[in-house]
Amino acid sequence: MTSSDGFAERLTEAKTVSDRLRSAIATVIVGQHGVVDQVLWTLIAGGHVLLEGAPGLGKTLLVRTLASALDLKFSRIQFTPDLMPSDVTGTNVLVMDARGASAGRFELHRGPIFGQIVLADEINRATPKTQSALLEAMQEHAVTIAGTRHVLDEPFFVLATENPIEMEGTYPLPEAQLDRFLVKVVVPSPGEDELTNILNRTTGHQVAAPEAVLHRDEVMALRALCRDIQIAEPVVRYASRLVTASAPNAAGAPDVVRRAIRYGAGVRGGQSLVLTAKALALLEGRAQVAFSDIQRVALPVLRHRLIRSFEGEADGVTTDQVVEELVRVVPTRPEAVEAAVQRN
Description:
By secondary structure, the chain is an alpha/beta fold. Helix content is 48%, strand content 17%.
């Protein structure tokens, strides 16, 4: 068997596995197919997810269901205003002997950050000091406690939730922490048919959690395979143009960007576009990223990386509207770039 044949076989296996994983999640979660897809893109790309939605939409249930289907260690952190950084990372405790006397040594009491799938529930309810306890873990996959660095078990996947309705007593995430999330997923309210199905499921006998369909080594293999997905130079340049055009001082920036945006997506935004598009292609069993893949992932990848100007906030322009406009006006082909610049 040639190497290309082996790669094609692994792509087929990835598509089969992703279908099984979606089916397992669907036994508990009603609808929300777009949300599930975006979470799976992020898992395979090796990033983290910020889930935003009103209470009762199943954000926590989705994370628990995903953990069951993946057979990974799950831990939950309920963020509150009095939560301390050591409550997240853990701390060294003095060891006592059977008589209650000090044994003269300290042992690490690990916090919930030492999970593999970590649910950071209502992350914006904790103070910035506690929120920052996640920064090193999310970026470096390690935590430092009392000067000692502890590497976290792989795969390490943080899913944080936010409630956008009740904002009193919350602490908005700073831009540096928002940028650590590969995607921001907005969880929509269910339609009539989906809500009816939810009511039937949740007011009868409890639905059992799905059996594990994917194990640690398989997740790590998919993450490695994601990096092997090809992306042609024109598609990479299209991703670069999208990111560049999100800056108000760029030559090809649309009018809405110049008027409503203070800072664009930046380098990490471009990296996230390409990596998430690779994960999308992989989970659909394709060996190469298409222009349409970049367009499909643009909204969840870029919406939380654009910082609005005062004018944009005053006019009520959302970052979603800006990203949608970028996708609409930024040309995919190089020959159309010059004409677009002249129009603007």
